[in-house]
Design brief:
With about 290 residues, this protein is of the alpha/beta class. It has one domain (about 60-290): 3-Layer(aba) Sandwich (Rossmann fold). Helices cover about 45% and strands about 20% of the residues.
Length: about 290
Amino acid sequence: MLTRQKMRDALRANLPFSLWHMAGFASRVPSYWHIDRSKALGIRNQIGGLPLYVAGNIHVFPPESLTAYLNWHHHGVEFNESRTEARAFIELSRGRSQLIDVGAQTGFMSALFAHSRSRPSRILSVEPDPQVQPLLKRARELNTDDHIDWEIAPTAVSDFSGRLLMPVSNKLHELTDNVCKSTEIEVPAATLASLLDGIDWSPDIIKIDVESFEYEILCSSLPVIETLKPALQLEVHWQMLARREKDPRNFLGPLAAIGYRGLQSGYRNLDRWLRAGRNEAVSRFSLSAQ
């Protein structure tokens, strides 16, 4: 499968450097525009700190950390697929007030949900990696208002409850002794159903970004999802799933059968989801049940 990244690498290796450099600058112009817009809006609105404007006047405050700032900048301001995902998430979450953020990392999506709510809302940010949990807690401090009830669960979500050996995927950019030297870490794990048993509310939107372990979560949670029918902001890691010999049709097919359809025209139905999997290493789906 010739992915976009492989195509970029092939062009980078074969084009004259000056031509590649010029093309790279041209491709970055939209990002420069959005970065400048975000800074200008912060100045015009006289907002302290380092607000990042994602869409319209919706802004978030990243934790005072190079790791968080780079991550939030990439997802919210630069012109790329992650920023497109953030804007689709805002659209998908319109009118919804109860988010479970599975794989919350440093809290960008949770903060974005919090800042785009005008009525009382609830957030459960689920993140098992102890490296980024302090940043997630700081994100909550910086982005919570009186009408937002934001909890954090330091656990992984899987197809069983107990202890899980999890690959370490978060990268810290700070020079600190807290950086995990191992490639795997043991963390507590819970099923989505047991996680819901621990709270007194039901989500109307769930975001899942867990580096291919969406397979275990969704395959084991289809009855719960069929009952609640929450909106789903879902990353499907096609290549990682293939390496793990997991077939994403085992959860995408049932989701389509339940009635889930994509918000984006290119990801409208099961056929288009599977077509995306032939061209993309990772697909970012915004799904709602019809």
